[in-house]
Batch of 2 targets.
Target 1
Amino acid sequence: MSEPLLQVTDLAKRFDGIVATDHLSLSVAAGDLHAIIGPNGAGKTTLISQLSGQLMPDTGRIHFAGHDITGLPMYRRSRLGLARSFQITSLFLDLSVLDNVALAVQAHAGHSFRFWREARSEPELREPARAALQRVGLSERAEWPAFVLSHGEHRLIELAMALAGQPRMLLLDEPMAGLGPDESTRMVELLRALKEELTILLVEHDMEAVFALADRITVLVYGRVIASGAPANIRANAAVREAYLGEEEAGYG
Amino acid sequence: MSATFNVRNVVVRGLLIALLLLPVYVGLSGDRFVLTLFTRIIILALAATSLNLIIGNGGMMSFGHAAYLGIGGYAVGILAREGIFNGFVQWPVALGASALFALIVGALSLRTRGVHFIMITLAFAQMAYYVIAGIARYGGDDGLTIYRRSQFVAPLDLSSKTQFYYLCLALLYASIYLIWRLVNSRFGMVIQGARSNDLRMRAIGYPTYRYKLVCFVIAGTLCGLAGVLLANYTEFVSPSIMYWTRSGDLIIMVVLGGMGSVLGPLIGAVALLVLEELLSNITEYWQIILGPLLLLVVLFARGGVDGLLVKSSAKVRS
């Protein structure tokens, strides 16, 4: 068992009396694809927001790659190699697809107080961006304005942007949300390839995808971890079945 | 694309060249008034160009941009009143004061967004207005006459109308070029990204506040330069130079010309002020005509006049 890349200890967050994260502890080993599942309102997105630094926890610590990142702002975490993709697609819609990804590359290429050279003709920004787009299969859309692309393609741009910074770990918030069956299959294939190179924390509703991809699964209910383990153990866990999987599986027939 | 006939390029280049040749026309026709009018247009175009950097490219809706016209103008006026006419002193002081004011306003206002941002920038500008209007030594409400334009070394002589016109034009063209470089640089990409989606920019690792603040200060300083020119042009400064309606005029020029287009504010300033001149010759109620015209542009031409030109160029090409 290797040293955990991400270590969350006793994390808690409340909003006006609602407990969103309830003394949650979690560790993600380097190289794992660790999935977080749980019913709506279980606090999955709140957890990701605290990990990425968009929200600050009330108590608890977060360690990433040996650094205590609990109090760090988003951009510092991102620079340490912790990249986040958003559940609700959050792009620069009026810029081109390539610009979107190149901005993610630029974020990791030192400070941007550079006022003279034309950024759109800098190979050190454009080439990694093109490579990331190729990775997700969007090379042909590179020069299109982002707003004309489909929802599924937006999710792929999201992923390309996360990859462009060459992160050590990806925080993926429902990458399959709203995708059609073909697009979902494509996304699963892509994540399967990515998990060979990266550590991934995946929040996802699509159980088929989760069980196909995850090395470990943690189940959240009301901000609390009710189970954590290998997919087979989670599937067999009675508490999980009752809280969550039971209804879903019934649906699958 | 440059090889094909392009309405927009023809119009824009025509305008840039016409402005260069204007003094020649004035020399031939003897129509001094045109030179005076266009000197004023060029100075206000510089102010609008600087405003466009923050509202058009940066999405920072400043409603107090005329404050920098006032600060630049009053720096010249106050120093002249105290007997300092040397431009090498006046101009750096004016630019420094504008930059400092922009730094303070930006540092506070950029922590907010939307309506709050508009109100804070407006409040600071009005504050500057009332402070200046309250200082009796510098003319208070009545303003301050400047008895001599900024002094530089020969052969540069600002009291020559033609030389002054060319100085203003050179500074405008240099600023437009500078902003064009800036907007397309790494810095400019960050500014555009922050306009488009600030939260996402922070999520991928940009401390956007700093970049926006630097952008805000650059715009304020450039507008301070326009203030310096305006004070030299009118040989007079009064608090009305920084009244909020003046900030509104600058916004109108930017919107009319085309927000975010580097040359838009120049086009907007020329269009607005020439129209104002022509209409006011026809009727004293010229605003009744100008108002609906502006409304039409805002409603039907989101990219302003420059946007219309670009669109018509696209049609010609196809």
Target 2
Amino acid sequence: MNELSEVLGKPLKYVGLREVYGEVLTRLGEKYENIVVLDADLSSSTKTSIFAKKFPERFFNMGIAEQNMMGFAAGLAAAGKIPFVSTFAIFASGRAWEQIRQSIAYPSLNVKIVATHGGITVGEDGASHQCTEDLALMRVLPNMTIIVPTDAVETEKVIETIVEVKGPFYVRISRAKFPVIFDNDHRFQIGKGYILREGKDIGIIATGLMVSHALKAAFMAEKEGISVMVVSMPTIKPIDHGLVLEVARRTRAILTAEEHSVIGGLGSAVAEALCEDEPVIMKKIGIKDRFGTSGKWDELIEFFELSPSKILEALRELYVRKLR
Amino acid sequence: MNNPIDEEKINRLRQIAKEIRKDVITMIYRAGSGHVGGSLSAVEILTTLYFHKMVHDPSNPNWSERDKFVLSKGHAAPLLYAVLARCGYFPKDEIFTLRMLNSRLQGHPSMGSPPGVEVPAGSLGQGLSIAAGIALAAKLDRMRTRVYVLLGDGEMQEGQVWEAANAIAHYRIDNLCAVVDKNMYQLDGRVEEVMNIDPLEEKFRSFRWNVFTIDGHNFKEIIHSLDEAERIQGTPTAIIANTIKGKGAKIFENNNRFHGTAPTEEEYLQAMRELEEDQ
């Protein structure tokens, strides 16, 4: 863990994204009287409970009924409210997918779905509660903007930003605490990726927790003589097409990294952009088309081959392919 | 229930309903497809809402103080379009662009297209939840808005309807009134044979709703039940409207071939003749 601190040039700090979400939402609740918050009996886990405590008259626990919750949110938005809807990622994106499609995305209503417990870092609860499909499920919906914050700092900026922008959003945050990458002056913009580290041999495009792993892997690769660029890509849709092409032109080799299935998520979005406009060699790090399992979250990172050392292996492989 | 309802008003509503029926049948005939049966069964309900009960302004569809109607059984789109056009939400002739490319009148409604359509519909079971969100927002804003939602009886098989019914009672959303167009049929046949939903009245009561069961073609009963629903505080109201699928022309009535099929020219002319003769 010291390596990351060295990479970042600052002491390492782990902060939970959920806690930040709950706090920012509550702060925004003061400023925006139109914010209403809906949860499906998971408010103490999603941390919308913080908002509920401060603004009980604007918090609606919808019980364990996600489909109805999305419909309520659509109606509230149609009537001018700004509903934030939270539950675990798999229940938001999976259980209520068609409600999101029909009642929210199709009429492009101003509903902010902030799903917690994305990915496999949910941990011990196992496959039923982990979510490695949500980015794919949401990407295919017209009108939907998808954001995966990199760390706690960015989470705060993301929530502050989307409250001001009309339209449906899907924001995916995690249960696990993430290392803080950005400084407080980080300027988040929807649809923008960020070059966190320059390099010329390979470009890693990563999202969420995997940004920190990519930074560590790049640091290790450099010691082996491989120069690696690292890009954080918080907006999965619309993807920063221009930046993806720029990274490809400059490095001619791309590695994507995400805590999501290798099908349909960031890797697919990058591949779609590249194969149409700038074909280069590419590899994807992600969950290899399988369900999760129980374990401690850091054990699961190893088990599903999402660790910095696995990224390093992929970098070596790509580097050899590039030289051939 | 004692205040007498003006006979003249009822007659006027009856005349409007007849014209709307003719519009609906003509729209579907010209489009070559569409849902005749489930549109015609709800003509009196929508006519009463739009020409008697609801506070709305067709020249200002987004007027913030309007009452709102949510069509949950989206396949009755031709009926909603015919009613909105007759109110003046959009040019009358446009109703005959139903289901055509580049028309604002899709086979199932899209939000705001044409003007007056509050929310999208077509995928069954979602309208009650959306209507509830709209009604809840009105309560938060201390508006007097009332929200009406029309559901089909087959639609009551969707689980989401009951999630919504539970939540609406829980949050005491009493400015919402759900009308179930109980025309006894769904695409595959009689509701009681495909998947029985009865006893519907008891179901709603057990979900802590106030319930009226009425003749859905009788204007007086529709008006009375809507008025009563408005008076009741703290509890949402469901009106179970017993209707005849395809009501208005004998060839359509209780003939489930016309669930989603357009009439032939001969059937169309016969139906129109029947409506003309019925004075």
